[in-house]
């Protein structure tokens, strides 16, 4: 059994154990988180990352944050729950799975109104476990629905990391690849290294090597040439937030890949659970884009690669317009073509 990306250890007094993704691929190290500030820090610093995993961590973070109030009144516990939720929501802004998971936890607490604080805390842990189990099932379903889109003997390009490391199980974008590979399809995966933090090189390449899927690492700037050479028949990526019209926020560089894919007639598939849709936003223009520290670009992994004093712009995500997305694969099926009507119909299922 591979080491799980994250899991809860013990009963309500237990802890959240995560793989520290900042240390991959060099070291596979698990760390134990025992309070909500540690969870906030782990999300913020990308020790745990990727939209579904951020949501799962936040759900367990709520338990860690409120359990200290189990000895007080119900009102005190609810005040603490609000504080913890607001705190965790501020850790990263783009992936809507974070807000989605926190809302689920709040609703679970609301349904337990009138129960004792220890019962409410136990109920919150049960809800976090339920979200975790749903996430596992979601990965498998996305893989099943999406794998038929990948042809035998074909090349697939992916950007960033949307594999086992971002979920409780099998990933989203990589789930298509894993299911197709396990069913005997011969795929070759081109992995964008994904500047500036190299989630493709450090994490996706690591996952593919671990599972024996043939893979070639390329710099982000090589995607156009690789497509021009006819090596890629499909692009598969994950998503951090999808607006009602199908505009997709994902790791910075996805939009560029989508434009290149469209120029070469290569379909771009987005794999994401229904918890990644944000129907409150009509288009992707309103999706908040996280801005990260300049040092990620000027001092990537410790070494200065730019002069002091140069201006730096470091948005962590971009928005790919729906017109460039060939299909969205969620746990309920395939949305194709991608438009507001099809999305609303799928989410209403
Ligand atoms: O900054 P990160 O590493 O959290 O960004 C992750 C991505 O952009 C993933 O592609 C996205 O969360 C989808 S994961 C199913």
Outline the structure in words.
With about 350 residues, the chain is α/β, with parallel strands linked by helices. The chain folds into two domains: about 140 residues, Four Helix Bundle (Hemerythrin (Met), subunit A) (Up-down Bundle); about 200 residues, Rossmann fold (3-Layer(aba) Sandwich), CATH 3.40.50.10470. The strands form three sheets. The protein has a seven-stranded mixed beta sheet, sandwiched between helices. It has a four-stranded mixed beta sheet with strand order 11-8-9-12, covered by helices on one side. Helix 6 links the parallel strand 4 and strand 5. The two termini are about 35 Å apart. 5-S-methyl-1-O-phosphono-5-thio-D-ribulose binds next to helix 2 and strand 9.
TL;DR of this structure?
This protein is an alpha/beta fold and 349 residues long. Helices cover 40% and strands 16% of the residues. The protein folds into 2 domains: 6-140, Four Helix Bundle (Hemerythrin (Met), subunit A) (Up-down Bundle); 145-347, Translation initiation factor eif-2b, domain 2 (Rossmann fold), CATH 3.40.50.
Which descriptors apply to this entry?
binds 5-S-methyl-1-O-phosphono-5-thio-D-ribulose; 2 domains; alpha/beta; four-stranded mixed β-sheet; 40% helix; Four Helix Bundle (Hemerythrin (Met), subunit A); seven-stranded mixed β-sheet
Topology:
Elements: E1 6-9, E2 15-19, E3 30-33, H1 36-44, H2 51-66, H3 74-89, H4 96-111, H5 117-146, E4 154-158, H6 173-182, E5 187-192, H7 199-211, E6 215-218, H8 223-228, E7 234-237, E8 241-243, E9 248-251, H9 254-263, E10 268-271, E11 277-278, H10 295-298, E12 317-320, E13 327-330, E14 333-335, H11 340-348
Parallel strand pairs: 4-5, 4-7, 5-6, 7-10, 8-11, 10-13
Antiparallel strand pairs: 1-2, 2-3, 8-9, 9-12, 13-14
Bound molecules: 5-S-methyl-1-O-phosphono-5-thio-D-ribulose.
């Amino acid at each position: 059994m591979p080491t799980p990306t994250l899991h809860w250890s013990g009963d309500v007094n237990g802890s959240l154990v995560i793989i520290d993704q900042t240390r991959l691929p060099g070291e596979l190290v698990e760390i134990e988180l025992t309070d909500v500030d540690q969870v906030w820090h782990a999300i913020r610093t990308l020790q745990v990352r990727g939209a579904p995993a951020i949501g799962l961590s936040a759900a367990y973070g709520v338990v860690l944050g409120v359990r200290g109030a189990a000895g007080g009144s119900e009102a005190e516990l609810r005040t603490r729950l609000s504080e913890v939720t607001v705190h965790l929501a501020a850790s990263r802004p783009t992936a809507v799975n974070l807000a989605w998971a926190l809302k689920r936890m709040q609703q679970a607490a609301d349904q337990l109104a009138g129960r004792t604080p220890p019962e409410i805390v136990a109920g919150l842990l049960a809800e976090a476990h339920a979200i975790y189990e749903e996430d596992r099932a979601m990965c498998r379903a996305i893989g099943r629905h999406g794998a038929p889109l990948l042809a035998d003997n074909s090349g697939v390009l992916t950007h960033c990391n949307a594999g086992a490391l971002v979920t409780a199980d099998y990933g989203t974008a990589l789930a298509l690849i894993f299911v197709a590979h396990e069913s005997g399809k011969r795929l070759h995966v081109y992995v964008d290294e994904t500047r500036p933090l190299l989630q493709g090189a450090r994490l996706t390449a690591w996952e593919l090597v671990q599972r024996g899927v043939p893979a070639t690492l390329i710099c982000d700037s090589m995607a156009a040439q690789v497509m021009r050479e006819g090596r890629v028949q499909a692009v598969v990526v994950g998503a951090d937030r999808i607006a009602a019209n199908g505009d997709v926020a994902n790791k910075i560089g996805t939009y560029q890949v989508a434009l290149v894919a469209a120029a070469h007639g290569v379909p771009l598939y987005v794999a994401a659970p229904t918890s990644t849709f944000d129907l409150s936003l009509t288009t992707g223009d309103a999706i908040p884009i996280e801005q990260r520290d300049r040092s990620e670009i000027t001092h990537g992994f410790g070494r200065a690669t730019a002069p002091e004093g140069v201006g730096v712009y470091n948005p962590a995500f971009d928005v790919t317009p729906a017109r460039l997305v060939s299909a969205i694969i969620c746990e309920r099926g395939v949305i194709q073509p991608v438009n507001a009507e099809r999305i609303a119909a799928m989410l209403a299922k």
